[in-house]
Amino acid sequence: MPLAAVLKGIENLALEDREIPSPGDNEILIRVKSCAICGTDIKVFHHGHKHIVFPRVTGHELSGVVEKIGRGISDYREGDRVAVAPAIPCGNCYYCRKGWQTMCDNLKAIGYHFDGGFAQYMIIPEIAVKNGCVNKIPGDMSFDHAALAEPLACVINGQQLSRVEIGDTVLIIGAGPIGCLHAELAKNIGAAKVILADVAQQRLDMASFTGATIINSKEKNLKEFIRDITDGKMADRVIVAVGTPEAQEQSLELVSKRGSVNFFGGLPKESPFARLNTNILHYGESFIIGTHGSTPLQNKIAIEMVASGKFSIDKYISKKIKLEDLHQGLKEAEERKVLKIIVNP
Ligand SMILES: [Zn+2]
Ligand SMILES: [Zn+2]
Question: Which ligand approaches the C-alpha of residue 117 most closely?
Answer without folding.
Answer: 1
